[in-house]
Amino acid sequence: MKKTLSFILILMVTAGLSYGQTDFQQDFVAEKQYLRLPVKNGAPSKTVEIKSEGEKLRWFTIELAEGEADWYAYLDISAWKGDTLSLHVNELSKGANVFQPIVQTDEDKNEGVLYEEKLRGQFHFSPKRGWNNDPNGLAFYKGEYHLFFQHNPYGRGWGNMHWGHAVSKDLVHWEEIDIALYPDKYGTMFSGGGVVDSNNTSGLGEIGQAPLILYYTAAEHSWKQGLAYSVDGRNFSKLPEPILDKISDGNRDPKVIWHEPSKRWVMVLYVTEADELHSMYFFTSTNMKHWEYASKYSGGYGNDRYMYECPEFFELPVEGNPSVKKWILTGANGQYAIGTFDGKTFSPEEERLFSQHGRDYYAAQTVSNEPKGRRIEIGWWRTHTDRNEMNFNQSMSIPTQLNLKQTENGLRLFRTPVEELKALRTDSYEASSIKLTPNGDNPLSKQKSETAEIRMTIDPETANNLQINLRGLVLNYQMNDEEIIIDGIRTHVPLVNGKQEFIIYVDRTGVEIFASGGQVFIPVNYNFAPSNTSYDVKVLGGDAVIEKLEFHKLKSIW
Ligand code: FRU
Protein backbone atom coordinates (compact mmCIF):
# COMPACT_ATOMS: atom_id res chain seq x y z
CA MET A 1 0.00 0.00 0.00
CA LYS A 2 2.76 2.38 1.08
CA LYS A 3 4.67 1.54 -2.11
CA THR A 4 1.67 2.28 -4.35
CA LEU A 5 1.10 5.60 -2.64
CA SER A 6 4.66 6.74 -3.09
CA PHE A 7 4.56 5.58 -6.72
CA ILE A 8 1.49 7.74 -7.34
CA LEU A 9 3.21 10.62 -5.56
CA ILE A 10 6.30 10.31 -7.75
CA LEU A 11 4.06 10.23 -10.84
CA MET A 12 2.27 13.37 -9.70
CA VAL A 13 5.52 15.23 -8.99
CA THR A 14 7.03 14.25 -12.33
CA ALA A 15 3.89 15.24 -14.17
CA GLY A 16 3.83 18.54 -12.26
CA LEU A 17 7.44 19.26 -13.19
CA SER A 18 6.94 18.72 -16.86
CA TYR A 19 3.54 20.40 -16.99
CA GLY A 20 3.66 23.07 -19.62
CA GLN A 21 7.12 21.99 -20.67
CA THR A 22 8.36 20.09 -23.61
CA ASP A 23 11.66 18.79 -24.87
CA PHE A 24 12.72 20.78 -27.89
CA GLN A 25 14.55 19.52 -30.92
CA GLN A 26 15.33 21.20 -34.20
CA ASP A 27 17.71 20.53 -37.05
CA PHE A 28 19.70 23.28 -38.69
CA VAL A 29 22.57 23.56 -41.15
CA ALA A 30 25.74 25.03 -39.61
CA GLU A 31 26.57 28.05 -41.76
CA LYS A 32 28.30 30.55 -39.55
CA GLN A 33 30.89 30.41 -36.82
CA TYR A 34 28.67 30.66 -33.76
CA LEU A 35 25.31 29.53 -32.50
CA ARG A 36 23.79 32.27 -30.36
CA LEU A 37 22.44 31.18 -26.97
CA PRO A 38 20.24 33.58 -24.98
CA VAL A 39 20.96 33.65 -21.23
CA LYS A 40 18.79 34.93 -18.41
CA ASN A 41 20.78 35.07 -15.17
CA GLY A 42 19.08 32.93 -12.54
CA ALA A 43 16.64 31.22 -14.94
CA PRO A 44 16.09 27.47 -14.44
CA SER A 45 18.97 25.46 -15.81
CA LYS A 46 18.34 23.53 -19.05
CA THR A 47 20.48 20.94 -20.73
CA VAL A 48 21.45 21.71 -24.31
CA GLU A 49 22.91 19.13 -26.65
CA ILE A 50 24.21 19.55 -30.17
CA LYS A 51 24.25 16.32 -32.14
CA SER A 52 25.27 15.23 -35.58
CA GLU A 53 23.82 11.99 -36.92
CA GLY A 54 22.93 10.97 -33.38
CA GLU A 55 26.44 11.62 -32.01
CA LYS A 56 26.70 14.15 -29.18
CA LEU A 57 29.15 16.89 -30.14
CA ARG A 58 28.57 19.44 -27.39
CA TRP A 59 26.51 19.36 -24.22
CA PHE A 60 26.12 21.74 -21.34
CA THR A 61 23.69 23.30 -18.90
CA ILE A 62 22.55 26.87 -19.35
CA GLU A 63 20.19 29.37 -17.73
CA LEU A 64 18.29 29.73 -20.94
CA ALA A 65 16.29 32.91 -21.50
CA GLU A 66 12.81 31.91 -22.50
CA GLY A 67 11.83 35.56 -22.70
CA GLU A 68 14.12 38.56 -22.93
CA ALA A 69 17.82 37.68 -22.63
CA ASP A 70 20.30 39.36 -20.27
CA TRP A 71 23.12 38.44 -22.60
CA TYR A 72 24.16 35.93 -25.26
CA ALA A 73 26.67 33.10 -25.10
CA TYR A 74 28.22 31.94 -28.35
CA LEU A 75 28.91 28.31 -29.16
CA ASP A 76 31.56 27.78 -31.83
CA ILE A 77 30.10 25.47 -34.48
CA SER A 78 32.57 26.34 -37.25
CA ALA A 79 34.06 22.82 -37.20
CA TRP A 80 30.82 21.48 -38.69
CA LYS A 81 30.15 24.07 -41.40
CA GLY A 82 27.78 22.66 -44.01
CA ASP A 83 26.64 19.80 -41.75
CA THR A 84 23.14 19.33 -40.45
CA LEU A 85 23.20 19.59 -36.68
CA SER A 86 20.40 18.97 -34.29
CA LEU A 87 19.78 21.11 -31.27
CA HIS A 88 18.14 19.54 -28.22
CA VAL A 89 16.91 21.34 -25.13
CA ASN A 90 15.27 19.62 -22.19
CA GLU A 91 12.07 20.96 -20.70
CA LEU A 92 11.55 24.17 -22.60
CA SER A 93 8.35 25.95 -21.62
CA LYS A 94 5.64 25.29 -24.14
CA GLY A 95 5.32 28.28 -26.43
CA ALA A 96 8.76 29.69 -25.53
CA ASN A 97 10.30 30.87 -28.77
CA VAL A 98 13.94 30.71 -27.64
CA PHE A 99 15.30 29.10 -30.77
CA GLN A 100 12.68 30.23 -33.25
CA PRO A 101 14.56 31.07 -35.29
CA ILE A 102 17.93 29.54 -34.46
CA VAL A 103 20.40 32.44 -34.77
CA GLN A 104 23.89 31.93 -36.12
CA THR A 105 26.47 34.69 -36.36
CA ASP A 106 30.09 35.30 -37.29
CA GLU A 107 30.49 37.99 -34.61
CA ASP A 108 30.66 37.03 -30.97
CA LYS A 109 30.29 40.55 -29.65
CA ASN A 110 27.48 41.94 -27.61
CA GLU A 111 27.65 45.28 -29.39
CA GLY A 112 28.32 48.22 -27.11
CA VAL A 113 28.50 46.00 -24.04
CA LEU A 114 31.55 43.77 -24.22
CA TYR A 115 34.40 45.18 -22.07
CA GLU A 116 32.27 48.25 -21.33
CA GLU A 117 30.52 46.65 -18.34
CA LYS A 118 30.40 48.72 -15.17
CA LEU A 119 32.09 46.04 -13.09
CA ARG A 120 34.72 45.04 -15.66
CA GLY A 121 38.11 45.15 -13.94
CA GLN A 122 40.16 47.56 -16.02
CA PHE A 123 43.52 45.81 -15.77
CA HIS A 124 42.63 42.38 -14.46
CA PHE A 125 41.91 39.61 -16.91
CA SER A 126 38.31 38.43 -16.90
CA PRO A 127 36.45 36.33 -19.46
CA LYS A 128 34.47 37.98 -22.23
CA ARG A 129 31.39 36.29 -20.91
CA GLY A 130 30.52 33.58 -18.45
CA TRP A 131 32.52 32.42 -15.48
CA ASN A 132 36.21 31.84 -14.73
CA ASN A 133 38.00 30.25 -11.84
CA ASP A 134 41.54 28.88 -11.75
CA PRO A 135 44.28 29.92 -14.16
CA ASN A 136 45.48 26.84 -16.04
CA GLY A 137 48.38 25.88 -18.29
CA LEU A 138 50.28 29.16 -17.85
CA ALA A 139 53.18 29.03 -20.30
CA PHE A 140 55.21 31.17 -22.65
CA TYR A 141 55.09 29.61 -26.10
CA LYS A 142 56.01 30.96 -29.54
CA GLY A 143 56.31 34.57 -28.46
CA GLU A 144 53.15 34.71 -26.38
CA TYR A 145 52.06 34.17 -22.83
CA HIS A 146 49.19 31.69 -22.68
CA LEU A 147 46.59 31.93 -19.97
CA PHE A 148 44.07 29.11 -19.96
CA PHE A 149 41.36 29.21 -17.38
CA GLN A 150 38.54 27.23 -15.81
CA HIS A 151 35.58 28.50 -17.74
CA ASN A 152 31.84 28.22 -17.97
CA PRO A 153 31.10 29.87 -21.31
CA TYR A 154 27.31 29.62 -20.87
CA GLY A 155 26.66 31.12 -17.45
CA ARG A 156 27.93 33.38 -14.68
CA GLY A 157 28.20 30.54 -12.19
CA TRP A 158 30.67 27.66 -11.86
CA GLY A 159 29.86 24.69 -14.11
CA ASN A 160 30.44 23.05 -17.52
CA MET A 161 34.19 23.26 -17.01
CA HIS A 162 36.00 24.12 -20.25
CA TRP A 163 39.49 25.54 -20.67
CA GLY A 164 39.09 29.10 -21.88
CA HIS A 165 42.16 30.61 -23.53
CA ALA A 166 43.75 34.05 -23.73
CA VAL A 167 47.12 35.20 -25.08
CA SER A 168 49.32 38.17 -24.33
CA LYS A 169 52.62 39.58 -25.52
CA ASP A 170 53.27 41.46 -22.30
CA LEU A 171 51.38 39.66 -19.47
CA VAL A 172 49.15 42.71 -19.17
CA HIS A 173 47.02 43.03 -22.33
CA TRP A 174 45.12 39.81 -22.94
CA GLU A 175 43.21 38.73 -25.99
CA GLU A 176 40.67 36.00 -25.37
CA ILE A 177 40.64 33.49 -28.19
CA ASP A 178 38.85 30.22 -28.93
CA ILE A 179 38.14 27.75 -26.18
CA ALA A 180 41.04 25.28 -25.96
CA LEU A 181 39.43 22.25 -24.29
CA TYR A 182 35.80 21.12 -24.31
CA PRO A 183 34.30 18.49 -22.02
CA ASP A 184 34.48 15.00 -23.50
CA LYS A 185 33.29 11.48 -22.75
CA TYR A 186 35.77 11.22 -19.87
CA GLY A 187 34.44 14.29 -18.11
CA THR A 188 34.57 18.04 -17.73
CA MET A 189 37.90 19.80 -18.02
CA PHE A 190 39.28 20.55 -14.57
CA SER A 191 42.51 22.38 -13.80
CA GLY A 192 46.05 21.50 -14.80
CA GLY A 193 49.35 22.86 -16.03
CA GLY A 194 51.07 23.60 -19.31
CA VAL A 195 54.64 23.04 -20.36
CA VAL A 196 56.70 23.39 -23.52
CA ASP A 197 58.30 20.12 -24.61
CA SER A 198 61.41 21.76 -26.06
CA ASN A 199 63.18 18.51 -26.97
CA ASN A 200 60.05 16.81 -28.24
CA THR A 201 60.42 13.99 -25.71
CA SER A 202 56.71 13.32 -26.18
CA GLY A 203 57.08 12.87 -29.93
CA LEU A 204 54.00 15.05 -30.30
CA GLY A 205 55.85 17.93 -31.95
CA GLU A 206 56.61 18.38 -35.60
CA ILE A 207 59.96 19.06 -37.23
CA GLY A 208 61.29 22.26 -35.72
CA GLN A 209 58.06 22.67 -33.73
CA ALA A 210 58.24 21.92 -30.02
CA PRO A 211 54.73 21.21 -28.77
CA LEU A 212 52.90 23.00 -26.00
CA ILE A 213 51.55 20.25 -23.74
CA LEU A 214 48.58 20.69 -21.45
CA TYR A 215 47.64 18.37 -18.61
CA TYR A 216 44.09 18.41 -17.26
CA THR A 217 41.75 16.33 -15.15
CA ALA A 218 38.74 14.80 -16.90
CA ALA A 219 36.55 15.32 -13.87
CA GLU A 220 33.11 14.58 -12.46
CA HIS A 221 33.11 11.29 -14.29
CA SER A 222 36.35 9.39 -14.80
CA TRP A 223 38.76 11.49 -12.68
CA LYS A 224 41.54 10.44 -15.06
CA GLN A 225 44.33 12.75 -16.18
CA GLY A 226 44.48 13.77 -19.82
CA LEU A 227 47.02 15.31 -22.17
CA ALA A 228 46.37 17.81 -24.96
CA TYR A 229 48.98 19.28 -27.27
CA SER A 230 49.42 21.97 -29.86
CA VAL A 231 52.10 23.03 -32.30
CA ASP A 232 50.61 26.43 -33.04
CA GLY A 233 49.28 27.57 -29.66
CA ARG A 234 45.81 27.79 -31.17
CA ASN A 235 44.55 24.33 -32.03
CA PHE A 236 44.66 21.63 -29.38
CA SER A 237 44.36 17.87 -29.84
CA LYS A 238 43.79 15.46 -27.01
CA LEU A 239 45.44 12.07 -26.81
CA PRO A 240 42.54 9.67 -27.26
CA GLU A 241 43.18 7.91 -23.96
CA PRO A 242 43.95 9.41 -20.55
CA ILE A 243 47.59 9.24 -19.48
CA LEU A 244 47.01 8.51 -15.80
CA ASP A 245 44.29 6.48 -14.14
CA LYS A 246 42.18 7.56 -11.25
CA ILE A 247 43.77 7.13 -7.83
CA SER A 248 40.78 8.27 -5.83
CA ASP A 249 37.60 10.21 -6.56
CA GLY A 250 38.36 13.87 -6.88
CA ASN A 251 42.10 13.49 -7.58
CA ARG A 252 42.97 16.43 -9.78
CA ASP A 253 45.00 19.38 -11.05
CA PRO A 254 48.17 17.82 -12.56
CA LYS A 255 51.12 20.20 -12.66
CA VAL A 256 54.06 19.05 -14.76
CA ILE A 257 57.63 20.38 -14.76
CA TRP A 258 60.95 19.36 -16.26
CA HIS A 259 63.56 18.25 -13.70
CA GLU A 260 66.93 18.81 -15.34
CA PRO A 261 69.23 16.84 -12.95
CA SER A 262 67.25 13.61 -13.33
CA LYS A 263 66.30 14.41 -16.95
CA ARG A 264 62.70 13.55 -16.19
CA TRP A 265 59.31 15.11 -16.23
CA VAL A 266 57.70 15.37 -12.82
CA MET A 267 53.96 15.54 -12.24
CA VAL A 268 52.43 16.71 -8.98
CA LEU A 269 48.82 15.65 -8.53
CA TYR A 270 46.39 16.44 -5.75
CA VAL A 271 44.91 13.29 -4.17
CA THR A 272 42.39 13.02 -1.32
CA GLU A 273 43.32 10.09 0.90
CA ALA A 274 41.45 8.28 3.67
CA ASP A 275 39.99 10.57 6.35
CA GLU A 276 40.20 13.42 3.85
CA LEU A 277 43.94 13.74 4.06
CA HIS A 278 45.16 16.23 1.46
CA SER A 279 48.17 14.84 -0.34
CA MET A 280 50.36 15.81 -3.26
CA TYR A 281 51.51 12.78 -5.25
CA PHE A 282 54.68 12.91 -7.33
CA PHE A 283 55.08 10.93 -10.56
CA THR A 284 57.95 10.84 -13.06
CA SER A 285 58.11 10.24 -16.80
CA THR A 286 60.57 10.34 -19.66
CA ASN A 287 58.03 10.66 -22.47
CA MET A 288 55.24 12.70 -20.84
CA LYS A 289 52.73 9.90 -21.44
CA HIS A 290 53.74 7.04 -19.14
CA TRP A 291 53.95 8.01 -15.51
CA GLU A 292 55.43 6.20 -12.54
CA TYR A 293 54.52 6.90 -8.96
CA ALA A 294 57.50 8.31 -7.03
CA SER A 295 56.40 9.67 -3.65
CA LYS A 296 53.89 11.82 -1.82
CA TYR A 297 53.78 14.75 0.55
CA SER A 298 50.75 15.11 2.81
CA GLY A 299 49.18 18.25 4.23
CA GLY A 300 46.14 18.73 6.43
CA TYR A 301 42.95 16.78 7.08
CA GLY A 302 39.49 17.96 6.08
CA ASN A 303 39.07 21.65 6.74
CA ASP A 304 42.78 22.07 7.34
CA ARG A 305 43.45 22.92 3.73
CA TYR A 306 47.25 22.84 3.75
CA MET A 307 48.17 21.14 0.45
CA TYR A 308 44.58 21.06 -0.77
CA GLU A 309 44.13 21.03 -4.59
CA CYS A 310 45.96 22.91 -7.36
CA PRO A 311 49.60 22.03 -6.65
CA GLU A 312 52.33 24.34 -7.91
CA PHE A 313 55.97 23.28 -7.74
CA PHE A 314 59.08 25.20 -8.75
CA GLU A 315 62.66 25.94 -7.85
CA LEU A 316 64.03 29.38 -6.95
CA PRO A 317 67.51 30.63 -6.15
CA VAL A 318 67.97 32.47 -2.86
CA GLU A 319 68.31 36.16 -3.65
CA GLY A 320 71.89 37.31 -3.16
CA ASN A 321 73.09 33.71 -2.90
CA PRO A 322 72.16 32.18 -6.27
CA SER A 323 74.13 28.97 -5.83
CA VAL A 324 71.61 27.99 -3.15
CA LYS A 325 68.33 26.87 -4.67
CA LYS A 326 65.21 25.60 -2.99
CA TRP A 327 61.99 23.94 -4.13
CA ILE A 328 58.62 25.47 -3.29
CA LEU A 329 55.42 23.42 -3.13
CA THR A 330 52.07 25.20 -2.78
CA GLY A 331 48.41 24.27 -2.61
CA ALA A 332 45.41 26.27 -3.79
CA ASN A 333 45.14 28.56 -0.76
CA GLY A 334 48.73 29.72 -1.22
CA GLN A 335 50.11 27.96 1.85
CA TYR A 336 53.51 26.60 0.93
CA ALA A 337 56.51 24.53 1.95
CA ILE A 338 60.17 25.15 1.12
CA GLY A 339 62.53 22.23 0.75
CA THR A 340 64.73 20.10 -1.46
CA PHE A 341 63.82 17.74 -4.28
CA ASP A 342 65.91 14.87 -5.63
CA GLY A 343 63.76 14.17 -8.66
CA LYS A 344 61.48 11.82 -6.76
CA THR A 345 60.92 13.02 -3.22
CA PHE A 346 60.21 16.46 -1.83
CA SER A 347 61.84 16.95 1.59
CA PRO A 348 60.44 19.98 3.39
CA GLU A 349 62.60 22.26 5.47
CA GLU A 350 59.92 24.83 6.29
CA GLU A 351 56.21 24.14 6.18
CA ARG A 352 52.84 25.88 6.41
CA LEU A 353 54.05 29.27 5.29
CA PHE A 354 51.64 31.84 3.80
CA SER A 355 52.19 33.50 0.45
CA GLN A 356 49.17 35.80 0.71
CA HIS A 357 47.31 37.44 3.58
CA GLY A 358 44.23 38.78 1.87
CA ARG A 359 40.92 37.45 0.71
CA ASP A 360 39.86 35.14 -2.08
CA TYR A 361 43.13 34.77 -3.93
CA TYR A 362 43.17 31.14 -4.94
CA ALA A 363 44.53 28.35 -7.13
CA ALA A 364 47.47 30.42 -8.33
CA GLN A 365 49.84 29.04 -10.91
CA THR A 366 53.19 30.13 -12.30
CA VAL A 367 54.25 30.61 -15.90
CA SER A 368 56.47 27.90 -17.34
CA ASN A 369 59.18 28.63 -19.90
CA GLU A 370 59.23 32.30 -18.86
CA PRO A 371 61.63 33.98 -21.33
CA LYS A 372 63.36 36.18 -18.74
CA GLY A 373 63.68 33.29 -16.29
CA ARG A 374 61.35 34.95 -13.80
CA ARG A 375 58.89 33.02 -11.64
CA ILE A 376 55.60 34.76 -12.38
CA GLU A 377 52.37 33.89 -10.67
CA ILE A 378 48.74 34.64 -11.50
CA GLY A 379 45.92 33.68 -9.16
CA TRP A 380 42.18 33.40 -9.48
CA TRP A 381 40.78 36.48 -7.76
CA ARG A 382 37.24 35.87 -6.64
CA THR A 383 35.78 39.25 -7.44
CA HIS A 384 32.10 40.00 -6.96
CA THR A 385 31.05 40.67 -10.51
CA ASP A 386 27.82 38.67 -10.70
CA ARG A 387 25.68 41.74 -10.18
CA ASN A 388 22.70 43.04 -12.17
CA GLU A 389 22.58 41.90 -15.76
CA MET A 390 26.41 41.53 -15.93
CA ASN A 391 27.43 38.91 -18.48
CA PHE A 392 30.70 37.75 -16.95
CA ASN A 393 31.92 36.85 -13.49
CA GLN A 394 35.29 36.56 -11.68
CA SER A 395 38.80 37.57 -12.70
CA MET A 396 42.51 36.91 -12.37
CA SER A 397 44.95 38.78 -10.15
CA ILE A 398 47.63 40.96 -11.64
CA PRO A 399 50.76 38.94 -12.50
CA THR A 400 53.34 39.04 -9.73
CA GLN A 401 56.98 38.01 -9.61
CA LEU A 402 58.08 35.62 -6.88
CA ASN A 403 61.51 35.69 -5.28
CA LEU A 404 63.04 33.75 -2.43
CA LYS A 405 64.73 35.82 0.24
CA GLN A 406 66.45 35.26 3.54
CA THR A 407 64.63 36.87 6.47
CA GLU A 408 65.32 36.72 10.18
CA ASN A 409 62.68 33.98 10.37
CA GLY A 410 64.13 31.90 7.55
CA LEU A 411 63.61 31.80 3.80
CA ARG A 412 60.37 33.35 2.55
CA LEU A 413 58.64 34.03 -0.76
CA PHE A 414 58.51 37.71 -1.68
CA ARG A 415 56.19 39.09 -4.30
CA THR A 416 56.19 42.20 -6.46
CA PRO A 417 53.95 43.29 -9.34
CA VAL A 418 55.57 42.52 -12.71
CA GLU A 419 57.35 45.49 -14.25
CA GLU A 420 55.24 45.22 -17.43
CA LEU A 421 52.35 46.81 -15.51
CA LYS A 422 54.20 50.13 -15.66
CA ALA A 423 53.04 50.41 -19.27
CA LEU A 424 49.54 51.16 -17.96
CA ARG A 425 50.61 54.31 -16.12
CA THR A 426 49.16 57.59 -17.22
CA ASP A 427 48.77 60.97 -15.52
CA SER A 428 51.48 60.39 -12.99
CA TYR A 429 52.02 62.50 -9.90
CA GLU A 430 55.17 62.29 -7.80
CA ALA A 431 56.24 64.04 -4.62
CA SER A 432 58.75 63.57 -1.84
CA SER A 433 59.38 64.51 1.80
CA ILE A 434 55.77 65.18 2.68
CA LYS A 435 55.21 65.88 6.35
CA LEU A 436 51.96 64.38 7.60
CA THR A 437 50.40 65.86 10.72
CA PRO A 438 46.99 65.11 12.26
CA ASN A 439 44.50 67.51 10.62
CA GLY A 440 47.15 68.39 8.00
CA ASP A 441 46.68 68.50 4.23
CA ASN A 442 45.81 65.44 2.17
CA PRO A 443 48.67 64.92 -0.30
CA LEU A 444 46.36 63.03 -2.67
CA SER A 445 43.60 65.64 -2.66
CA LYS A 446 44.01 66.37 -6.37
CA GLN A 447 44.05 62.75 -7.50
CA LYS A 448 40.79 61.41 -8.84
CA SER A 449 40.67 58.07 -10.60
CA GLU A 450 38.82 54.77 -10.74
CA THR A 451 42.12 52.93 -11.15
CA ALA A 452 45.47 53.64 -9.57
CA GLU A 453 48.95 52.45 -8.76
CA ILE A 454 50.13 54.10 -5.56
CA ARG A 455 53.65 53.80 -4.19
CA MET A 456 54.52 55.24 -0.85
CA THR A 457 57.56 55.04 1.43
CA ILE A 458 56.69 56.07 4.97
CA ASP A 459 58.77 56.98 7.96
CA PRO A 460 56.31 56.59 10.85
CA GLU A 461 58.16 59.01 13.16
CA THR A 462 55.73 59.62 16.06
CA ALA A 463 52.43 58.67 14.41
CA ASN A 464 50.42 55.70 15.73
CA ASN A 465 48.24 55.26 12.80
CA LEU A 466 48.30 55.87 9.08
CA GLN A 467 45.06 55.81 7.15
CA ILE A 468 44.94 55.55 3.40
CA ASN A 469 41.44 56.06 2.10
CA LEU A 470 41.15 54.38 -1.29
CA ARG A 471 37.89 55.46 -2.88
CA GLY A 472 36.10 54.87 0.41
CA LEU A 473 37.94 51.68 1.38
CA VAL A 474 40.20 52.50 4.33
CA LEU A 475 43.57 50.85 4.79
CA ASN A 476 44.46 51.32 8.43
CA TYR A 477 48.12 50.82 9.28
CA GLN A 478 48.73 50.68 13.01
CA MET A 479 52.39 51.43 13.13
CA ASN A 480 53.02 50.48 16.76
CA ASP A 481 51.62 47.00 16.21
CA GLU A 482 52.85 46.88 12.62
CA GLU A 483 49.44 45.69 11.56
CA ILE A 484 47.13 46.42 8.64
CA ILE A 485 43.38 46.36 9.05
CA ILE A 486 41.32 46.65 5.89
CA ASP A 487 37.73 45.59 5.28
CA GLY A 488 37.78 43.06 8.13
CA ILE A 489 41.21 41.65 7.19
CA ARG A 490 43.88 42.02 9.85
CA THR A 491 47.46 41.04 9.21
CA HIS A 492 50.97 41.63 10.50
CA VAL A 493 52.96 43.93 8.22
CA PRO A 494 56.45 44.49 9.62
CA LEU A 495 58.38 47.72 9.19
CA VAL A 496 61.62 47.23 7.29
CA ASN A 497 64.51 49.21 8.77
CA GLY A 498 61.94 51.27 10.63
CA LYS A 499 60.04 52.21 7.45
CA GLN A 500 57.13 50.95 5.45
CA GLU A 501 56.75 50.79 1.71
CA PHE A 502 53.36 50.23 0.14
CA ILE A 503 52.55 49.40 -3.45
CA ILE A 504 48.80 49.47 -4.01
CA TYR A 505 46.87 48.65 -7.15
CA VAL A 506 43.27 49.86 -7.25
CA ASP A 507 40.75 48.56 -9.76
CA ARG A 508 36.95 48.62 -9.88
CA THR A 509 36.72 45.27 -8.13
CA GLY A 510 39.28 45.61 -5.37
CA VAL A 511 42.83 46.38 -4.32
CA GLU A 512 46.10 44.43 -4.24
CA ILE A 513 48.47 45.64 -1.55
CA PHE A 514 52.17 44.80 -1.44
CA ALA A 515 53.99 45.73 1.76
CA SER A 516 57.17 45.11 3.76
CA GLY A 517 59.29 45.03 0.61
CA GLY A 518 57.06 42.37 -0.96
CA GLN A 519 56.92 39.99 1.98
CA VAL A 520 53.25 40.70 2.57
CA PHE A 521 50.63 40.51 -0.17
CA ILE A 522 47.05 41.47 0.66
CA PRO A 523 44.49 41.12 -2.12
CA VAL A 524 41.11 42.56 -1.08
CA ASN A 525 38.12 42.04 -3.33
CA TYR A 526 35.77 45.01 -3.00
CA ASN A 527 33.31 46.59 -5.39
CA PHE A 528 33.88 50.35 -5.34
CA ALA A 529 31.08 52.85 -5.74
CA PRO A 530 31.75 54.28 -9.22
CA SER A 531 31.00 57.78 -7.95
CA ASN A 532 33.82 57.77 -5.39
CA THR A 533 37.16 58.30 -7.12
CA SER A 534 38.97 60.11 -4.28
CA TYR A 535 42.07 59.25 -2.30
CA ASP A 536 43.22 60.51 1.05
CA VAL A 537 46.19 59.92 3.36
CA LYS A 538 46.25 60.97 6.98
CA VAL A 539 47.96 60.25 10.29
CA LEU A 540 46.64 59.94 13.81
CA GLY A 541 48.40 60.31 17.15
CA GLY A 542 51.58 61.97 15.89
CA ASP A 543 53.50 62.97 12.76
CA ALA A 544 54.92 60.89 9.92
CA VAL A 545 56.80 61.58 6.71
CA ILE A 546 56.06 60.22 3.26
CA GLU A 547 59.56 60.08 1.89
CA LYS A 548 58.41 59.21 -1.61
CA LEU A 549 54.96 59.28 -3.13
CA GLU A 550 53.84 58.17 -6.57
CA PHE A 551 50.29 58.14 -7.88
CA HIS A 552 49.60 56.82 -11.36
CA LYS A 553 46.23 56.52 -13.01
CA LEU A 554 46.12 53.26 -14.92
CA LYS A 555 44.80 52.76 -18.44
CA SER A 556 42.37 50.02 -19.25
CA ILE A 557 43.82 46.89 -20.87
CA TRP A 558 40.70 46.37 -22.98
C1 FRU B 1 40.03 24.89 -7.53
C2 FRU B 1 39.29 23.74 -8.20
C3 FRU B 1 40.26 22.71 -8.74
C4 FRU B 1 39.47 22.07 -9.84
C5 FRU B 1 38.74 23.26 -10.40
C6 FRU B 1 37.40 22.95 -10.99
O1 FRU B 1 39.35 26.08 -7.60
O2 FRU B 1 38.40 23.16 -7.30
O3 FRU B 1 40.72 21.80 -7.79
O4 FRU B 1 40.27 21.46 -10.79
O5 FRU B 1 38.58 24.17 -9.34
O6 FRU B 1 36.87 24.06 -11.62
From TrEMBL:
One of its GO terms (molecular function) is hydrolase activity. It comes from the Bacteria. Pfam families: Glyco_hydro_32C, Glyco_hydro_32N. Residues 420-522 form the Glycosyl hydrolase family 32 C-terminal domain. InterPro entries: ConA-like_dom_sf, Glyco_hydro_32, Glyco_hydro_32_C, Glyco_hydro_32_N, Glyco_hydro_beta-prop_sf. Keywords: Glycosidase, Hydrolase, Signal. Residues 1-20 form the signal peptide. Residues 124-410 form the Glycosyl hydrolase family 32 N-terminal domain. Belongs to the glycosyl hydrolase 32 family. This is Glycoside hydrolase family 32 protein. It comes from Albibacterium profundi.
